[in-house]
Design a protein that fits this description.
The protein is built from 8 helices and no strands. By secondary structure, it is mainly α.
Length: about 150
C-alpha cells in the first residue's frame, strides 16, 4: 500500500471519528452546550438532534471520500475535487489554532482569552485537513485514474 493510501485512509478514519463524536453529543444537550452549541439548539432537543445528524452525515461523507481515495472502497464521483475541498474546509476550520497559540504566548495581541477546548478543536481540524491535503498532493495522479482501488 502506498503512503497516499495510508494518509487518505487515516483522514477517512479521523472523519468518521468526528462523525461519531458529533452524533454522540447531539443526543445530550448539556454536552452540546459544553462543546459550543448555541442556546437555540440546546433549548430545542429535536432541532439539536436533526442538525447533529445532518453534520454527522457530512462528516461521514468526508470519511467515505477518504476511504475511497485510500483505495479501500470504490471510487466516488469527483474524488480529486472532493478530497481537495474536504481538506480545504478542515484547514480553514483549523487555522485559528495558529493565532490562538500566538495569543497564548503573548506574541499576537488579543483581547479575548483562548479556551483549551477551542484550541483542541482547531488543532484537530488542522491536522485532519493537512492529512487530507498530504494524501491529495502525493496521490494527485492516482486520484485522477478511474480505478483507484486497483492501485492498492
Amino acid at each position: 500500500m502506498k503512503i497516499k493510501n495510508y494518509l487518505l485512509l487515516l483522514a477517512g478514519v479521523l472523519s468518521f471519528g468526528v462523525a461519531i463524536f458529533q452524533l454522540v453529543i447531539s443526543f445530550v444537550p448539556k454536552w452540546s452546550a459544553f462543546f459550543g452549541a448555541g442556546d437555540t439548539l440546546v433549548s430545542n432537543p429535536l432541532l439539536l438532534l436533526v442538525s447533529g445528524i445532518g453534520m454527522t452525515t457530512v462528516f461521514a461523507i468526508c470519511g467515505f471520500y477518504g476511504l475511497s481515495g485510500g483505495g479501500v472502497i470504490r471510487r466516488l464521483p469527483l474524488l480529486r475535487l472532493g478530497i481537495f475541498f474536504i481538506g480545504a474546509v478542515y484547514v480553514y476550520r483549523g487555522t485559528p489554532v495558529v493565532f490562538q497559540i500566538l495569543s497564548m504566548l503573548d506574541l499576537f495581541p488579543s483581547g479575548v482569552g483562548v479556551s483549551l477546548l477551542s484550541l483542541y478543536t482547531s488543532l484537530v481540524s488542522l491536522v485532519i485537513g493537512i492529512v487530507y491535503w498530504a494524501g491529495f498532493t502525493i496521490g494527485w495522479k492516482q486520484l485522477g485514474r478511474k480505478t483507484v482501488a486497483a492501485s492498492v
